[in-house]
Specification:
510 residues, globular, alpha/beta, 10-stranded mixed sheet, 14 helices, two-stranded antiparallel sheet, 2 domains
Length: 510
Protein backbone atom coordinates (compact mmCIF):
# COMPACT_ATOMS: atom_id res chain seq x y z
CA UNK A 1 0.00 0.00 0.00
CA UNK A 2 2.85 2.39 0.74
CA UNK A 3 4.37 1.71 -2.67
CA UNK A 4 1.03 2.46 -4.32
CA UNK A 5 0.82 5.69 -2.33
CA UNK A 6 4.31 6.54 -3.47
CA UNK A 7 3.45 6.12 -7.13
CA UNK A 8 0.35 8.25 -6.69
CA UNK A 9 2.34 10.95 -4.95
CA UNK A 10 4.85 11.13 -7.78
CA UNK A 11 2.46 11.01 -10.68
CA UNK A 12 -0.12 13.47 -9.48
CA UNK A 13 1.85 15.80 -11.74
CA UNK A 14 4.85 14.02 -13.15
CA UNK A 15 7.33 14.37 -10.18
CA UNK A 16 9.40 15.16 -10.92
CA UNK A 17 7.71 14.92 -14.76
CA UNK A 18 9.70 17.13 -13.84
CA UNK A 19 7.45 15.61 -11.62
CA UNK A 20 4.72 16.34 -13.95
CA UNK A 21 4.44 19.37 -15.52
CA UNK A 22 5.51 16.65 -17.14
CA UNK A 23 1.96 15.62 -17.00
CA UNK A 24 1.58 11.83 -17.31
CA UNK A 25 -0.14 10.61 -20.43
CA UNK A 26 -1.32 7.09 -21.19
CA UNK A 27 1.37 4.89 -22.75
CA UNK A 28 0.87 4.51 -26.48
CA UNK A 29 1.84 1.82 -28.97
CA UNK A 30 5.39 3.17 -29.11
CA UNK A 31 5.94 1.95 -25.56
CA UNK A 32 4.64 -1.57 -26.15
CA UNK A 33 7.00 -4.36 -27.20
CA UNK A 34 6.97 -5.20 -30.88
CA UNK A 35 8.78 -8.52 -31.16
CA UNK A 36 9.68 -8.19 -34.84
CA UNK A 37 10.50 -4.50 -34.73
CA UNK A 38 14.18 -3.68 -34.23
CA UNK A 39 14.64 -0.39 -36.05
CA UNK A 40 18.11 0.68 -37.16
CA UNK A 41 19.79 3.47 -35.25
CA UNK A 42 19.15 6.80 -36.95
CA UNK A 43 20.28 10.40 -36.58
CA UNK A 44 19.92 13.93 -37.89
CA UNK A 45 22.96 16.23 -37.60
CA UNK A 46 22.73 20.01 -37.95
CA UNK A 47 25.09 22.95 -37.33
CA UNK A 48 24.17 26.05 -35.31
CA UNK A 49 25.48 29.03 -33.36
CA UNK A 50 24.30 30.62 -30.12
CA UNK A 51 25.27 33.93 -28.56
CA UNK A 52 25.97 33.53 -24.85
CA UNK A 53 26.95 36.83 -23.29
CA UNK A 54 29.53 38.41 -25.58
CA UNK A 55 30.61 35.10 -27.16
CA UNK A 56 29.18 33.31 -30.18
CA UNK A 57 29.27 29.54 -29.57
CA UNK A 58 29.24 27.24 -32.63
CA UNK A 59 27.82 23.79 -31.94
CA UNK A 60 26.65 20.61 -33.61
CA UNK A 61 23.27 19.11 -32.74
CA UNK A 62 22.62 15.40 -33.14
CA UNK A 63 19.10 14.04 -32.75
CA UNK A 64 19.55 10.27 -32.70
CA UNK A 65 18.67 6.84 -31.37
CA UNK A 66 20.85 4.15 -29.82
CA UNK A 67 19.94 0.50 -29.46
CA UNK A 68 20.24 -0.97 -25.97
CA UNK A 69 20.95 -4.68 -25.53
CA UNK A 70 20.33 -7.41 -22.99
CA UNK A 71 23.04 -9.67 -21.55
CA UNK A 72 22.85 -11.87 -24.65
CA UNK A 73 23.64 -8.93 -26.93
CA UNK A 74 20.12 -8.77 -28.37
CA UNK A 75 18.45 -5.36 -28.90
CA UNK A 76 15.68 -4.67 -26.41
CA UNK A 77 15.30 -0.88 -26.50
CA UNK A 78 15.68 2.05 -28.87
CA UNK A 79 16.70 5.10 -26.84
CA UNK A 80 16.31 8.59 -28.30
CA UNK A 81 18.71 11.38 -27.27
CA UNK A 82 19.70 14.88 -28.36
CA UNK A 83 23.39 15.77 -28.11
CA UNK A 84 25.02 19.18 -28.43
CA UNK A 85 28.77 19.44 -29.03
CA UNK A 86 30.69 22.70 -29.22
CA UNK A 87 32.75 22.70 -32.42
CA UNK A 88 35.45 25.33 -31.80
CA UNK A 89 37.22 23.66 -28.88
CA UNK A 90 40.93 22.81 -29.07
CA UNK A 91 40.55 19.36 -27.51
CA UNK A 92 36.93 18.09 -27.64
CA UNK A 93 37.98 14.88 -25.89
CA UNK A 94 38.63 16.70 -22.61
CA UNK A 95 35.69 19.12 -22.64
CA UNK A 96 33.12 18.72 -19.84
CA UNK A 97 30.23 16.43 -20.79
CA UNK A 98 26.85 16.51 -19.02
CA UNK A 99 24.07 13.91 -19.27
CA UNK A 100 20.70 15.54 -18.60
CA UNK A 101 17.26 14.03 -17.90
CA UNK A 102 13.99 14.67 -16.11
CA UNK A 103 12.00 12.51 -13.75
CA UNK A 104 8.52 11.05 -13.44
CA UNK A 105 9.36 8.25 -13.48
CA UNK A 106 8.18 8.29 -17.07
CA UNK A 107 9.07 11.87 -18.05
CA UNK A 108 11.03 12.85 -21.13
CA UNK A 109 13.90 15.34 -20.97
CA UNK A 110 11.86 18.01 -22.80
CA UNK A 111 11.47 20.07 -19.63
CA UNK A 112 15.15 20.67 -18.95
CA UNK A 113 15.85 20.56 -22.69
CA UNK A 114 13.38 23.26 -23.76
CA UNK A 115 13.16 25.12 -20.48
CA UNK A 116 16.60 25.21 -18.90
CA UNK A 117 19.81 24.09 -20.58
CA UNK A 118 19.24 23.48 -24.28
CA UNK A 119 20.34 26.15 -26.78
CA UNK A 120 16.72 26.99 -27.60
CA UNK A 121 13.91 27.45 -25.09
CA UNK A 122 10.16 27.93 -24.96
CA UNK A 123 9.05 31.31 -23.62
CA UNK A 124 6.23 30.98 -21.09
CA UNK A 125 4.30 33.42 -18.93
CA UNK A 126 5.34 32.85 -15.33
CA UNK A 127 3.49 32.46 -12.99
CA UNK A 128 0.37 32.81 -15.16
CA UNK A 129 -1.35 30.30 -17.48
CA UNK A 130 0.31 30.26 -20.87
CA UNK A 131 -1.97 31.18 -23.82
CA UNK A 132 -2.47 28.59 -26.59
CA UNK A 133 -0.46 28.59 -29.83
CA UNK A 134 1.29 30.29 -31.45
CA UNK A 135 4.23 29.84 -29.08
CA UNK A 136 7.66 31.44 -29.26
CA UNK A 137 11.00 29.67 -29.26
CA UNK A 138 14.01 31.85 -28.41
CA UNK A 139 17.77 31.49 -28.21
CA UNK A 140 18.60 30.45 -24.67
CA UNK A 141 21.19 32.53 -22.84
CA UNK A 142 20.70 30.10 -19.95
CA UNK A 143 22.08 27.17 -21.95
CA UNK A 144 25.13 25.34 -20.62
CA UNK A 145 26.60 24.77 -24.11
CA UNK A 146 29.24 27.43 -23.44
CA UNK A 147 30.72 25.43 -20.54
CA UNK A 148 29.86 21.80 -21.37
CA UNK A 149 28.70 19.50 -24.13
CA UNK A 150 25.18 18.25 -23.40
CA UNK A 151 23.33 14.98 -23.94
CA UNK A 152 19.59 15.07 -23.19
CA UNK A 153 18.34 11.54 -22.54
CA UNK A 154 14.79 10.24 -22.96
CA UNK A 155 14.60 6.93 -21.04
CA UNK A 156 12.71 4.02 -22.58
CA UNK A 157 8.98 4.76 -22.61
CA UNK A 158 9.48 8.53 -22.93
CA UNK A 159 10.10 10.85 -25.87
CA UNK A 160 10.70 8.72 -28.98
CA UNK A 161 12.33 5.93 -26.92
CA UNK A 162 10.63 2.55 -26.92
CA UNK A 163 10.90 -1.14 -26.17
CA UNK A 164 11.95 -3.18 -29.23
CA UNK A 165 12.78 -6.75 -30.21
CA UNK A 166 12.72 -9.20 -27.34
CA UNK A 167 12.59 -6.41 -24.78
CA UNK A 168 9.90 -5.90 -22.13
CA UNK A 169 8.91 -2.86 -20.12
CA UNK A 170 10.15 -4.62 -16.99
CA UNK A 171 13.68 -4.52 -18.45
CA UNK A 172 13.66 -0.75 -17.93
CA UNK A 173 10.87 0.38 -15.60
CA UNK A 174 12.28 0.19 -12.11
CA UNK A 175 14.78 1.98 -9.89
CA UNK A 176 17.67 -0.41 -10.59
CA UNK A 177 16.53 -1.41 -14.08
CA UNK A 178 16.43 2.23 -15.16
CA UNK A 179 19.91 2.91 -13.83
CA UNK A 180 21.38 -0.12 -15.59
CA UNK A 181 19.88 0.84 -18.94
CA UNK A 182 21.12 4.42 -18.73
CA UNK A 183 24.55 3.25 -17.59
CA UNK A 184 24.75 1.19 -20.78
CA UNK A 185 23.77 4.25 -22.82
CA UNK A 186 26.30 6.53 -21.09
CA UNK A 187 29.13 4.00 -21.52
CA UNK A 188 28.35 3.51 -25.20
CA UNK A 189 27.99 7.21 -25.88
CA UNK A 190 31.30 7.98 -24.19
CA UNK A 191 33.06 5.18 -26.08
CA UNK A 192 31.60 6.00 -29.49
CA UNK A 193 32.42 9.67 -29.20
CA UNK A 194 35.88 9.47 -27.65
CA UNK A 195 34.85 11.13 -24.38
CA UNK A 196 36.43 8.89 -21.74
CA UNK A 197 38.80 11.70 -20.80
CA UNK A 198 36.08 14.34 -20.50
CA UNK A 199 35.01 15.59 -17.05
CA UNK A 200 31.58 13.99 -16.62
CA UNK A 201 28.38 15.20 -14.96
CA UNK A 202 24.89 13.95 -14.25
CA UNK A 203 22.12 16.58 -14.18
CA UNK A 204 18.67 15.34 -13.18
CA UNK A 205 15.43 16.86 -12.03
CA UNK A 206 12.86 15.40 -9.62
CA UNK A 207 12.84 11.61 -10.00
CA UNK A 208 15.86 12.28 -12.17
CA UNK A 209 17.73 13.09 -8.94
CA UNK A 210 16.76 9.68 -7.55
CA UNK A 211 18.08 8.24 -10.82
CA UNK A 212 21.33 10.20 -10.50
CA UNK A 213 22.08 8.76 -7.06
CA UNK A 214 21.71 5.20 -8.36
CA UNK A 215 23.20 5.80 -11.81
CA UNK A 216 26.20 7.66 -10.42
CA UNK A 217 27.00 4.75 -8.14
CA UNK A 218 26.53 2.22 -10.97
CA UNK A 219 28.77 4.17 -13.35
CA UNK A 220 31.55 4.45 -10.79
CA UNK A 221 31.42 0.93 -9.34
CA UNK A 222 30.47 -1.18 -12.38
CA UNK A 223 31.72 0.86 -15.33
CA UNK A 224 34.84 2.37 -13.74
CA UNK A 225 33.66 5.83 -14.78
CA UNK A 226 34.41 8.36 -12.05
CA UNK A 227 32.24 11.47 -12.12
CA UNK A 228 33.28 15.05 -11.49
CA UNK A 229 29.89 16.20 -10.29
CA UNK A 230 26.18 15.51 -9.86
CA UNK A 231 23.57 18.28 -10.00
CA UNK A 232 20.29 17.48 -8.23
CA UNK A 233 17.42 19.78 -9.24
CA UNK A 234 14.29 19.61 -7.04
CA UNK A 235 15.59 16.48 -5.44
CA UNK A 236 14.29 13.46 -3.57
CA UNK A 237 16.49 10.74 -2.08
CA UNK A 238 14.14 9.47 0.62
CA UNK A 239 10.52 8.98 -0.44
CA UNK A 240 9.45 8.56 3.17
CA UNK A 241 9.79 12.34 3.42
CA UNK A 242 7.06 12.88 0.79
CA UNK A 243 4.49 10.18 1.54
CA UNK A 244 2.33 11.43 4.42
CA UNK A 245 2.09 7.73 5.26
CA UNK A 246 -0.48 6.77 7.92
CA UNK A 247 1.15 6.52 11.33
CA UNK A 248 4.25 8.45 10.20
CA UNK A 249 4.60 12.17 10.93
CA UNK A 250 7.87 13.08 9.19
CA UNK A 251 6.30 14.54 6.03
CA UNK A 252 4.13 16.96 8.03
CA UNK A 253 7.23 18.29 9.75
CA UNK A 254 9.29 18.68 6.59
CA UNK A 255 6.57 20.39 4.55
CA UNK A 256 5.89 23.12 7.12
CA UNK A 257 8.48 25.68 5.86
CA UNK A 258 7.09 25.29 2.31
CA UNK A 259 3.55 25.83 3.59
CA UNK A 260 4.69 28.96 5.42
CA UNK A 261 6.43 30.66 2.51
CA UNK A 262 3.50 29.78 0.23
CA UNK A 263 1.01 31.32 2.66
CA UNK A 264 3.11 34.48 2.81
CA UNK A 265 3.38 34.68 -0.99
CA UNK A 266 -0.41 34.56 -1.36
CA UNK A 267 -0.99 37.05 1.45
CA UNK A 268 -2.61 34.62 3.89
CA UNK A 269 -0.02 35.54 6.52
CA UNK A 270 2.11 38.70 6.73
CA UNK A 271 5.04 38.79 4.34
CA UNK A 272 8.24 38.42 6.43
CA UNK A 273 10.67 41.33 6.43
CA UNK A 274 13.55 38.86 6.30
CA UNK A 275 12.62 35.74 4.37
CA UNK A 276 15.73 33.77 5.24
CA UNK A 277 15.36 34.44 8.96
CA UNK A 278 11.66 33.55 8.77
CA UNK A 279 12.37 30.21 7.11
CA UNK A 280 15.04 29.42 9.70
CA UNK A 281 12.49 30.12 12.40
CA UNK A 282 9.95 27.78 10.82
CA UNK A 283 12.59 25.08 10.33
CA UNK A 284 13.47 25.21 14.01
CA UNK A 285 9.84 25.12 15.09
CA UNK A 286 9.08 22.23 12.74
CA UNK A 287 11.90 20.01 14.00
CA UNK A 288 11.43 21.17 17.60
CA UNK A 289 8.03 21.85 19.19
CA UNK A 290 5.95 20.64 16.22
CA UNK A 291 7.78 17.33 15.79
CA UNK A 292 7.70 16.77 19.55
CA UNK A 293 3.97 17.44 19.69
CA UNK A 294 3.21 15.03 16.85
CA UNK A 295 5.40 12.40 18.49
CA UNK A 296 3.16 12.53 21.59
CA UNK A 297 0.15 11.47 19.54
CA UNK A 298 -3.04 11.20 21.60
CA UNK A 299 -1.01 11.79 24.77
CA UNK A 300 -0.39 15.45 23.85
CA UNK A 301 -1.91 17.61 26.63
CA UNK A 302 -4.74 19.94 25.60
CA UNK A 303 -2.83 23.10 26.52
CA UNK A 304 0.17 22.12 24.37
CA UNK A 305 -2.16 21.10 21.56
CA UNK A 306 -3.79 24.53 21.62
CA UNK A 307 -0.38 26.23 21.53
CA UNK A 308 0.74 24.18 18.52
CA UNK A 309 -2.56 24.80 16.78
CA UNK A 310 -2.17 28.58 17.17
CA UNK A 311 1.40 28.53 15.88
CA UNK A 312 0.50 26.37 12.89
CA UNK A 313 -2.28 28.79 12.01
CA UNK A 314 0.20 31.68 12.20
CA UNK A 315 2.61 29.88 9.87
CA UNK A 316 0.20 28.34 7.36
CA UNK A 317 -2.72 30.76 7.11
CA UNK A 318 -5.10 27.88 7.81
CA UNK A 319 -7.75 28.32 10.48
CA UNK A 320 -7.37 26.78 13.92
CA UNK A 321 -10.68 25.02 13.39
CA UNK A 322 -9.39 23.37 10.21
CA UNK A 323 -6.11 22.41 11.88
CA UNK A 324 -7.96 20.89 14.81
CA UNK A 325 -10.16 18.82 12.51
CA UNK A 326 -7.00 17.76 10.64
CA UNK A 327 -5.47 16.58 13.93
CA UNK A 328 -2.61 19.07 13.41
CA UNK A 329 -1.59 17.10 10.29
CA UNK A 330 -2.28 18.60 6.86
CA UNK A 331 -1.17 16.78 3.75
CA UNK A 332 0.14 18.75 0.78
CA UNK A 333 -2.95 18.12 -1.35
CA UNK A 334 -5.18 19.24 1.51
CA UNK A 335 -3.11 22.39 2.05
CA UNK A 336 -3.32 23.23 -1.65
CA UNK A 337 -7.10 22.89 -1.60
CA UNK A 338 -7.71 24.73 1.67
CA UNK A 339 -5.26 27.64 1.51
CA UNK A 340 -7.19 29.72 -1.04
CA UNK A 341 -10.57 27.99 -0.87
CA UNK A 342 -12.31 31.21 0.20
CA UNK A 343 -11.06 32.79 -3.04
CA UNK A 344 -12.26 29.87 -5.13
CA UNK A 345 -8.68 28.98 -6.03
CA UNK A 346 -6.49 25.91 -5.76
CA UNK A 347 -2.74 26.29 -5.16
CA UNK A 348 -0.26 24.55 -7.45
CA UNK A 349 1.94 21.62 -6.47
CA UNK A 350 5.04 22.01 -8.64
CA UNK A 351 5.19 25.76 -8.07
CA UNK A 352 3.00 27.14 -5.31
CA UNK A 353 3.21 30.66 -6.73
CA UNK A 354 0.68 29.47 -9.32
CA UNK A 355 -3.00 29.05 -8.60
CA UNK A 356 -6.06 28.09 -10.62
CA UNK A 357 -9.82 27.86 -10.54
CA UNK A 358 -11.34 25.45 -8.04
CA UNK A 359 -14.16 23.53 -9.66
CA UNK A 360 -15.44 21.90 -6.47
CA UNK A 361 -15.40 24.21 -3.46
CA UNK A 362 -16.01 21.24 -1.15
CA UNK A 363 -13.14 19.12 -2.38
CA UNK A 364 -10.83 17.87 0.37
CA UNK A 365 -7.61 17.56 -1.63
CA UNK A 366 -6.45 19.38 -4.78
CA UNK A 367 -7.38 17.42 -7.89
CA UNK A 368 -5.04 19.07 -10.42
CA UNK A 369 -1.88 21.16 -10.60
CA UNK A 370 -2.38 24.67 -12.03
CA UNK A 371 1.34 25.01 -12.78
CA UNK A 372 1.39 21.81 -14.80
CA UNK A 373 -1.67 22.72 -16.83
CA UNK A 374 -0.34 26.27 -17.33
CA UNK A 375 2.75 25.18 -19.26
CA UNK A 376 2.32 21.61 -20.52
CA UNK A 377 0.75 22.63 -23.83
CA UNK A 378 3.60 25.03 -24.53
CA UNK A 379 6.29 22.45 -23.78
CA UNK A 380 4.53 19.79 -25.86
CA UNK A 381 4.40 22.10 -28.86
CA UNK A 382 7.96 23.34 -28.29
CA UNK A 383 9.71 19.96 -28.29
CA UNK A 384 7.73 18.71 -31.27
CA UNK A 385 8.27 21.73 -33.50
CA UNK A 386 11.91 22.10 -32.45
CA UNK A 387 13.02 18.51 -33.03
CA UNK A 388 11.09 18.19 -36.28
CA UNK A 389 11.52 21.65 -37.79
CA UNK A 390 14.92 22.86 -36.54
CA UNK A 391 16.84 19.64 -35.92
CA UNK A 392 15.30 17.74 -38.82
CA UNK A 393 14.32 14.63 -36.84
CA UNK A 394 11.12 13.60 -38.58
CA UNK A 395 9.97 10.49 -36.72
CA UNK A 396 6.31 9.70 -37.28
CA UNK A 397 5.95 8.43 -33.73
CA UNK A 398 4.39 10.46 -30.95
CA UNK A 399 6.86 12.23 -28.66
CA UNK A 400 5.70 11.26 -25.17
CA UNK A 401 6.47 13.92 -22.57
CA UNK A 402 5.06 11.79 -19.76
CA UNK A 403 4.53 8.10 -20.29
CA UNK A 404 2.60 7.48 -17.09
CA UNK A 405 4.89 4.63 -16.05
CA UNK A 406 4.35 5.02 -12.30
CA UNK A 407 1.76 2.27 -12.22
CA UNK A 408 4.22 -0.21 -13.72
CA UNK A 409 7.37 1.03 -11.98
CA UNK A 410 9.34 -1.36 -9.78
CA UNK A 411 10.06 0.69 -6.65
CA UNK A 412 11.75 -2.12 -4.73
CA UNK A 413 15.54 -2.26 -4.59
CA UNK A 414 17.64 -5.24 -5.52
CA UNK A 415 19.38 -6.69 -2.47
CA UNK A 416 17.40 -4.46 -0.09
CA UNK A 417 17.37 -5.57 3.53
CA UNK A 418 14.28 -5.88 5.72
CA UNK A 419 10.65 -5.44 4.79
CA UNK A 420 9.32 -3.46 1.86
CA UNK A 421 9.05 0.28 2.46
CA UNK A 422 9.51 3.63 0.84
CA UNK A 423 12.25 3.81 -1.76
CA UNK A 424 15.54 5.19 -0.41
CA UNK A 425 18.61 5.95 -2.55
CA UNK A 426 20.66 7.90 -0.01
CA UNK A 427 22.97 4.94 0.43
CA UNK A 428 23.71 4.96 -3.32
CA UNK A 429 24.73 8.60 -3.24
CA UNK A 430 26.68 8.02 -0.04
CA UNK A 431 28.61 5.16 -1.66
CA UNK A 432 29.40 7.31 -4.70
CA UNK A 433 30.74 10.10 -2.48
CA UNK A 434 32.79 7.77 -0.31
CA UNK A 435 34.43 5.81 -3.13
CA UNK A 436 35.20 8.96 -5.16
CA UNK A 437 36.71 11.56 -2.79
CA UNK A 438 36.69 14.17 -5.57
CA UNK A 439 32.99 13.85 -6.42
CA UNK A 440 30.93 16.93 -5.64
CA UNK A 441 27.16 17.34 -5.50
CA UNK A 442 25.07 20.49 -5.82
CA UNK A 443 21.39 20.61 -4.88
CA UNK A 444 19.10 23.19 -6.53
CA UNK A 445 16.04 23.91 -4.34
CA UNK A 446 12.89 25.81 -5.27
CA UNK A 447 11.35 27.44 -2.19
CA UNK A 448 7.81 27.13 -3.58
CA UNK A 449 8.11 23.46 -4.52
CA UNK A 450 5.34 21.38 -2.91
CA UNK A 451 6.34 18.23 -4.81
CA UNK A 452 9.89 17.87 -3.46
CA UNK A 453 10.13 20.46 -0.67
CA UNK A 454 13.52 21.97 0.14
CA UNK A 455 13.43 21.10 3.84
CA UNK A 456 12.86 17.43 3.03
CA UNK A 457 16.00 17.40 0.90
CA UNK A 458 17.98 19.21 3.59
CA UNK A 459 16.83 16.55 6.04
CA UNK A 460 17.78 13.73 3.67
CA UNK A 461 21.26 15.17 3.13
CA UNK A 462 21.77 15.70 6.86
CA UNK A 463 20.95 12.03 7.43
CA UNK A 464 23.18 10.54 4.73
CA UNK A 465 25.51 7.87 6.19
CA UNK A 466 28.71 9.68 5.20
CA UNK A 467 31.73 11.17 7.01
CA UNK A 468 32.24 14.91 7.38
CA UNK A 469 34.61 15.15 4.41
CA UNK A 470 32.02 13.72 2.04
CA UNK A 471 29.27 15.91 3.52
CA UNK A 472 31.39 19.00 2.89
CA UNK A 473 31.25 18.22 -0.83
CA UNK A 474 27.47 18.73 -0.96
CA UNK A 475 26.18 22.29 -1.42
CA UNK A 476 22.67 23.78 -1.63
CA UNK A 477 21.35 26.61 -3.80
CA UNK A 478 17.92 28.22 -3.38
CA UNK A 479 15.49 29.95 -5.75
CA UNK A 480 12.37 32.06 -5.22
CA UNK A 481 10.50 29.71 -7.54
CA UNK A 482 9.17 26.20 -7.58
CA UNK A 483 10.05 22.73 -8.85
CA UNK A 484 10.91 24.13 -12.28
CA UNK A 485 12.70 27.30 -11.26
CA UNK A 486 13.70 27.90 -14.88
CA UNK A 487 10.16 28.81 -16.00
CA UNK A 488 10.91 32.22 -14.46
CA UNK A 489 13.63 33.97 -16.48
CA UNK A 490 15.44 35.27 -13.41
CA UNK A 491 15.36 31.74 -11.98
CA UNK A 492 16.72 30.34 -15.24
CA UNK A 493 19.67 32.72 -15.26
CA UNK A 494 20.43 32.08 -11.59
CA UNK A 495 20.31 28.33 -12.23
CA UNK A 496 22.60 28.70 -15.25
CA UNK A 497 25.10 30.76 -13.22
CA UNK A 498 25.15 28.28 -10.35
CA UNK A 499 25.46 25.13 -12.47
CA UNK A 500 28.03 26.70 -14.82
CA UNK A 501 30.15 27.75 -11.84
CA UNK A 502 29.82 24.25 -10.38
CA UNK A 503 31.04 22.66 -13.62
CA UNK A 504 33.91 25.10 -14.05
CA UNK A 505 35.07 24.60 -10.46
CA UNK A 506 35.07 20.80 -10.71
CA UNK A 507 36.28 20.14 -14.26
CA UNK A 508 39.99 20.44 -13.42
CA UNK A 509 42.67 20.97 -16.06
CA UNK A 510 41.50 20.73 -19.64
Amino acid sequence: MRLVALAAALLSTVVTAPVTAQRPAPPDAAVSPAKADVPPEDSSVTEHTLRVGSAVVPYRAMAATMLLENNDGKPIGSLYYTAYTRTDTRDPGTRPLAFVYNGGPGAASAWLHMGAFGPRRIVVTDPEPNPPAPYRLADNAGSLIDVADLVFIDPIGTGFSRVVGEGKGTDFWGVDEDARSLAQFVRRYVSRNGRWNSPKYLIGESYGTTRSAVLGNVLQRREGMDLNGIVLISAVLDFETLLFAPGHDLSYVLYLPSYAITAAYHGLIPKPANQEAFLDEVRQYALGPYAAALARGAALPATERASVRRQLAAYTGLSEDYLERANLRVEAGQFRAELQRARGAVTARLDARYDGLMGDLLIESADYDPQSTAISGAYTAAINMYLRNELGYTADRRYSLGGGLGGTWNWSREGARGWAGATYVGTDLAQALITNPHLRVEVENGLYDLATPFFAMEYAVDHLPIPADARSRITHQYYDAGHMMYTMESGLMALKANVAAFIQSTAGER
